[in-house]
Amino acid sequence: MCRSAVIDKATHHPLYLNTLKGHTDNVGGLAFSADGSALATACEDRVIRVFRLTDIRAKNMGFMKHNMTTTPVDVAFGSAPNLLAVTARGIVQEANLSMVHLASNKASEQHTLWQVPNSHDGRPAILLQSAHRSETSGVLLSCSAKNELRLFSFAGKQLASVDAAGLHNHMAAISLDGRFFAAATFTSDVKIHEVRYDKQNAYQSVAKVMDLKGHKSQVLCLAFAPDATKMVTASKDGTWRVWNINVRYHQQEDPKTLLQHQQEVPSGKAYTRLAWGPHGLLAAACDSSIHFLDPATGSRVDAIDGAHDAAVLSMEWAPTTIPVGLQQVAVLATAGDDRKVRLWQSPQK
Fold first, then answer.
1. What per-residue confidence (pLDDT) applies to 8?
2. What residues have CB less than 8 Å from 175, skipping those under 6 apart?
């Protein structure tokens, strides 16, 4: 099938909303602001962009951009839609973390609030996520390509460094409330860590509190439910599982598998990205295709074959519904190894 036919097929899918223009290289990371009003992207053309989602179907959606001297790998919003945390790749692949203030496209109205050079001690970073504890406070989870996870405050202070106990990390996730985080590593088990805060939401400590055991091969991706009571994992063993993590782990109660289901993917393939939507559906990516899954029944609700011209690299649900015409819909953003960022509306269960 020719390239143009694949693009035509994706843009004519009933769930297709838009393709965000402006990227001139592959987009490795993306993130919605906490209020769902903006979408940020990290592109290998050394530009980070922030799209304002006032009209999600606009042919030429406006965006602010910030030119970087290093290559952005992933982005995450800070305490406001104009504050953007960026993990970037240096000349020798080392990770560099920073927080950028974007008021407009004018260089005079853009500045870096803080920087953490070499944020993983010479190792590259592959993912960055944020979690908000209040309107002004939160934490950043930075995932290295090796076996390390680091927590930073929105002010750039390193709070914790955790060994994920695998040969290397595939990816990581932090719950929306910043309470739990975990990594998908080169092992079949998942270790969940709890972040503890005081009554003023100030960071106190981190401790491993749960282990998810049951997969027969390495876990490739995972995601927390929006309310942090469940987790979904997908493994190279060909299955995906939903876990109840709302357990009395302080009394050594183990998480329980609520559902186990085969991945409906070609032989030898597996899901490499998962995202749990605010409306209850899961999005799962395998190569260039996206599946929408019901975590209660295991059924595949819908699918977008060839959503991108190449593999899906990043995927995230908007934290709130977004107006599309006269309706409020759940919106999924995807970035592919094809220089494209696309928006999709959720199917109905």
1. 59
2. 131, 181, 224, 228
Q: Write the pLDDT tens digit of every residue in 314-346.
A: 999 999 999 888 889 999 999 999 999 999 999
| SS3 readout for 62-84 | CEEEEECCCEEEEEEECCCCCEE
Per-residue b or e along 31-55, where b marks 16 or more CB atoms closer than 10 Å to that residue's CB: bbbbebebbbbbbbbbbbbbbebee
Please, is 194 exposed, middle or buried when counting C-beta atoms within 10 Å of its C-beta (0-12, 13-18, 19+)? middle
Query: For residue 90, what pLDDT is reported?
Result: 85
Please give the C-alpha separations between residue 166 and each of 188, 195, 313, 338, in angstroms, as whole numbers: 9, 20, 21, 30
What would the pLDDT profile of 80-108 be if each residue is shown by its tens digit?
989 999 999 988 889 999 999 998 888 77
d(CA 176, CA 181): 10
Residue 87 tokens, joined: 């993990």
Record the pTM: 0.94
Backbone angles phi, psi at 252, to 5 degrees: 65, 25
Tokens of residue 2, six digits? 């020719």
Q: Six-digit token pair at 322?
A: 């977004």
pLDDT tens per residue, range 50-69: 999 999 999 999 999 999 99
Evaluate whether 190 touches 222 at the Cβ level (below 8 Å).
Answer: yes
Task: Give the pairing type, strands 180-185 and 169-174.
Answer: antiparallel
**pLDDT on residue 29:** 97
Kindly list the strands in the beta sheet with 16-20, ordered across the sheet, starting from the edge strand earlier in the chain.
16-20, 341-345, 331-336, 312-317
Question: What pLDDT is attached to residue 109?
Answer: 82
Residue 3: in which H helix or E strand, if any? helix 3-11
Mean pLDDT over 123-130 rounds to: 96
Going from the C-alpha of 342 to that of each of 17, 265, 331, 332, 339, the distances in angstroms are 8, 22, 10, 8, 10
Write out the two tokens for 70: 């290093």
